Structure formats: C-alpha cells, structure tokens
Amino acid sequence: MRRLLHFLLYLAAAAALELRISHSPVIGLVYKQVVLHCNFTIIASVKKEDVAVKWTMRTVFGEERPVFQFDGNHTASYRQGSLVKTEFLPYGIASLTLSNVTLMDEGIYTCTVLVTPQYGNGKIQLKVRAQPTVLLPSQSLLNAAEGEKTFACAVHNFYPQTIDISWLARKHGSTHEIPLSSDVCTGVPSSHGPDGLFAVLSRVTQLVNETNNGSLYICEVRHESLEKPLRRNTTLVVRAPKPYQQDTGFIIGVAVACIVVTCSCSIFFIIFYQEYLSKAEPQVSSVIKPDLIPINEKTRLICNISGFRPKKIEIKWYRRSPNTTTAPAGYSTREDVALSDAQEDITSMAIQPLEANGRFYSISSCLIYTPTIKDDGAEFECRIQHSTHKSPVRRGIFIHVTARPASCYIFSSPQLPVQGEKLILTCVVEKFYPRDIALDWFRNGQPVEEVTQFGPFSCETDFYSVWSQTEFILTKDKEGAIYTCQIKHSSFGNVEELSYEINLQGVPPEVLWITADPAVPVAGEELKLNCRINNFSPNLIRVNWFHDGSPLHVGMSHSVSVVGSNGLFSMWSLLRVIPRPGVGKTVFTCRVEHGALKDCVERSYILPMLASPLHLDG
Ligand SMILES: *[C@@H]1O[C@H](CO)[C@@H](O)[C@H](O)[C@H]1NC(C)=O
Ligand SMILES: *[C@@H]1O[C@H](CO)[C@@H](O)[C@H](O)[C@H]1NC(C)=O
Ligand SMILES: *[C@@H]1O[C@H](CO)[C@@H](O)[C@H](O)[C@H]1NC(C)=O
Ligand SMILES: *[C@@H]1O[C@H](CO)[C@@H](O)[C@H](O)[C@H]1NC(C)=O
Ligand SMILES: *[C@@H]1O[C@H](CO)[C@@H](O)[C@H](O)[C@H]1NC(C)=O
Ligand SMILES: *[C@@H]1O[C@H](CO)[C@@H](O)[C@H](O)[C@H]1NC(C)=O
C-alpha cells in the first residue's frame, strides 16, 4: 500500500515542475535593477535547448503583457532591458532581470518553465518604490537684525505619495533634539514629470537671534521606501553686524570718490531710486488648494505673494461660513449680507515666512486648516494689504470637503449560494459625504441591468449611506462568475471596486502577509508572527504552521472567529518563536485551508540569520 502511494507521488511529481520563486512582494527601486527569481529543480542533466521559459506580467490596471520568452532556440524580450540568462537554464535558473525599473513595471509576474514533459509556473508580485532625495543647504545665514528664519526642505522623486516630514532642532553644543511642531508647512506631494514620481516642499519658520548661533535644524523624512528615516541638517550661522572702521586712507578715498560721485550724483540717484526705493506692487496668485479635501485631515491653502517692495505687508486669512442656515424672517437673505456677517479671521492658522529675492520680497502664505463637514461650501479668502494698494487685494476660494465611506462591502443572502435558488447580492457603502454617488454592478466585466438602489439616505446627521442590490436565480452558468460593484465617489479621487465571486462552497478567506512583532527580530527574544485571515464563510477553516517545510505542533494559538458587519468571519493565528543566534535563514509558513479555496493559501516569513546579542550567558 505504502509503496503504491510513493509510486503515485512520483508520477505526480513527473508532471509538475517544482519552482522556487522570490517571496512576494519583491520591492524594486526606480531606475535600479531588480531580479525576480525563478529556479527549478532538474532531475537529470538538461541542455539549454530542452528548456522553454516565458515571463508575462499583469499590470495594476489588469492588462496582461508579455515580458520575455525563450523557446529553446530564440529569445524575445518584449520590455527593453528584460533578460533571462539562457546559459544558466541548464543549472535550473530562469530568473528575470529587469534593468532601469519604472512605475510601469509594477504588477504580478508569472514565470512559466517547461522542461518536457514537466511544466510549472509561479507568480511574483513586484512593487516599485522610489527613495526620496532630500535637499537642505548645509548652512543658513541670518543677519543679526532679522528676527525670524525660514528653513525649506525640498523632497523629490519619491513613490508612493504618502510621506512624513518632521523637523527637529538641536542647540549648539547640546545633543538633545527638540521636535518642532508649530509653524511647519508641508505642501501636498504632487507629481509633474512623466515618471510619476512625487515631490513636496516643507518649510518651518523659527524666531531666532544670536543665542541660536550654531544651532542645527534637522529635516527628517520617513517613507515606505526607506529602511530608516532620511535626515538632512542645516547649521544656523548668525552674522554679527560689521563694526565701523576708521582709517585715514579710507577718508581720502571717500573724498576722491565723492568728487566723482557728485558729478554723476543726479543720474545715480535716479537709478538708485528706481532700483532700490521705488515701490513694487505684489503679484498675488490665486489660492492653491488640493484636489481633494478630506474632513478631519490637515489641509493646506497657499497664496503666493511675490515681487513686492517695501517689505512691510499684511496678509490676512478669512473664512466665511457656507450660507446654509436660513435667515430669520425679516432679515435679508442676500448673499453678501449673510456672508460678510459670518466672516472669521483665521490668520493665526497661517504661516507666512518672508523671503528676500534680490531686491524684492516674496511670501508663500500657507494656511493650515483642518476642515469638518461644516466647512463644505465655505469660502476662504487671502487678503493682502500693501502700501502700493489703495484697497486690499483679495483672493477667495470655495472649498468642498469629502468624507471617504467608513465601510464598503458586498454581502450575499443566503450567505452560502445554492444552485437553482435566488441569490441577492448587496453592495453597502456607509457614511460618506457628499451625497452624490454612483454604484454600478458588473458580471464578468459586463454591466448588470437589474439593480435596485436604496438611498442615499442620511446617516449620523451629516453623512450618507447607500445600498445597491442585484438579485437573480443562481443558474449553473453563473457559478464562478465574478460580480463587481463599482463605486464612483468624489472622496476616492477615482473609482473603487468590490468583487464577489460566486462560489457554492462559500467565501474564500483573504490571507494577509505575515506581520512580525518586533518588526526587526532579535536573537533570544520572543518573536510573534501573526497570520491574519479575513472575510471567509462558512466558519470552517484550518490553519497550520510550518518551519522550513516541517509541520509545527507547539507555539501557535488561534483566535476565535468573529463575524464582521458583512456577515463574514475573520480570525488570526499567532506563532511565537525564539530566534537563536547564528542559525542560517529559516522560513516560517502559515497555511490556510478552506472549502471555498481551490488550493490552500500559504504565506511565508523569512527569518534572516541573526547575530548573537552582545550579552550572552552560557
Ligand atoms: C535561485 O538561484 C539563485 C542562484 O543560485 C539564488 O541566488 C537565489 O537565491 C535562488 N532563489 C530562490 C528563490 O531559490
Ligand atoms: C534555431 O534557429 C535557427 C535560425 O532561426 C534555425 O536555423 C535552426 O534550425 C533552429 N534550431 C533548432 C534546433 O530549432
Ligand atoms: C531609465 O528610464 C528613464 C525613463 O524611461 C530614462 O529617462 C533613463 O535614461 C533610463 N536610464 C538608463 C540608464 O537607461
Ligand atoms: C533670543 O531668543 C530667545 C528665545 O528663542 C529668548 O528667550 C531670548 O530672550 C532672545 N534673546 C535676545 C537677546 O533677544
Ligand atoms: C548633520 O549633517 C552632517 C553632514 O551631512 C552629518 O555629518 C551630521 O552627522 C549631521 N548631524 C546630525 C545631528 O544629524
Ligand atoms: C556665530 O558663529 C560663527 C562661527 O561659529 C561666528 O563666526 C559668528 O561671529 C557668530 N555670530 C555671532 C553673532 O556671535
């Protein structure tokens, strides 16, 4: 019996080629090279001609693309700078090298290897990241008479958009770093170039004097692409006023010069007047606002004022409430009256460092404001008063706030679809703002017509919720179909999609990547590996852990399954291990089996080799 089993296993192995591929996701850095590993096991010796390799990829937009192909004789590279070294195929290496990675390379790669009659494939996710470059001059000069200084940190070429920039100060001769939180203005990361990378400017304004001479101002940047924060610093150098020097030679020089100067005095004065004393009117930009203004998040409105002289200027910010409250009887409801009454001076929320550009001055006034739902339709005004103006220059802008739905999900009733019976799929989008929303259903990419929408109805006074339902008799041809609920709402800045696959066995679990606590393992200290398993049904699931392929029986604990608002179950499984120093890299795997899954799903965590801690007894 046992021998027969071995023989059957041998036959199965003969048809399936075992591949060892890179652990997903592989992170590739923009403009760098990345290698996606795809190694296969060769039983007998093979020649290069006996092997065929194909690499394809699916972009984040779902488009399939060929990347590289080798048919045993010819190679074809469909992406410039993609390469499989065919001379290594006889050693079981079909790894793909991509040079000069760009954002276009992001996606899921499939490696297919054929060594007749064996055949195998594997998928690798490639994420592309770009590490920011941070520019801050190493020294900042300050004339003793000026009372404040603005430091600007320019952060370029990063991806994805989310970035965290903070400022710290360190007194001369001290090692203590003080975080600077007020008067910091960081713009909205924006992307201009064709490469899709982001850039942002962060400024901090500080009141400084001689006592700050030699102080260090540090700009600290945290980004997903960086292992540790990137720091740049600038030293403040205060220039003492120059003492007046008396010197006989100097006096004679001045006397001679004076004679020459007198002759051209009037001409000089005219030029001097035009160049230095004449007034220049400020150029005022319109108010710049971000495309999306989510509630309860800091938003920045910027008004650029440039090229003015003299430097004395007053910039104020005002907010006018939206004109929604109905005026009491007898009062005028004319807009101007209602708005001017509601005006509120919010200049204290702005930071506006003065900068000298040659003989002119400029200010980038940045209002940092955290809007609430009450700010929808409010007007913000930047008002500039300068001696060149008879009346102030005003720049106003209306803002519209958005709130992302607090939750979006699809639920089915009955939860377990039954062939030949009615199935109702409901797409629920809760607690969003504004009210306008569009929900569309698709079956395998084709629009579904029979849809009933409920709402949008009010939810928690200021927000809205909506349900969209499609119901049908579950015929055999609909089994395996993918239903998509497409949600268009201004808070997304784009479209979001939820999918539901008709599976008579239930809803398969989403298995997340393993998270480790602590994130950087330490030899001799307990390491917790957490495998999260979300949104499955029915509540029958099996989770096992493996260490380098062998099953583990101790050290793990499973949570009970909890039911979410979508009616699906979620749970986690925790493995506690104590990494030993000096042991080579090992792999921990969490394997999930569920009736609605065709195959089991595995997630692995690679524990690198750890050095011994400094103090080790025994
Ligand atoms: C594949 O083989 C190469 C070369 O021997 C090796 O560097 C790489 O780590 C291997 N990758 C995997 C996933 O086994
Ligand atoms: C390889 O390609 C060349 C040129 O295309 C062709 O002449 C040759 O016959 C091919 N060899 C094999 C083994 O198919
Ligand atoms: C990499 O790609 C970018 C954009 O496609 C291009 O501008 C640059 O010259 C390339 N660099 C190299 C070394 O090929
Ligand atoms: C310099 O600034 C500090 C605060 O930053 C203040 O306490 C101190 O009085 C100032 N010194 C002078 C001479 O203005
Ligand atoms: C400040 O920057 C210099 C040069 O980049 C660096 O050597 C120094 O360590 C930095 N100091 C701090 C406190 O970050
Ligand atoms: C500030 O420090 C620099 C060098 O450390 C020195 O040359 C300069 O005179 C100092 N300024 C004042 C106002 O003390």
Automatic annotation (TrEMBL):
Pfam families: C1-set, V-set. Residues 1-16 form the signal peptide. Residues 34-113, 132-235, 282-394, 405-501, 509-595 form the Ig-like domain. Coiled coil: none annotated. Keywords: Immunoglobulin domain, Membrane, Signal, Transmembrane, Transmembrane helix. The keyword ATP-binding does not apply. InterPro entries: Ig-like_dom (IPR007110), Ig-like_dom_sf (IPR036179), Ig-like_fold (IPR013783), Ig/MHC_CS (IPR003006), Ig_C1-set (IPR003597), Ig_sub (IPR003599), Ig_V-set (IPR013106), Immune_Resp_Modulators (IPR050380). The chain crosses the membrane at residues 250-273. PANTHER family: TAPASIN. This is Ig-like domain-containing protein. The lineage of its organism: Eukaryota, Metazoa, Chordata, Craniata, Vertebrata.
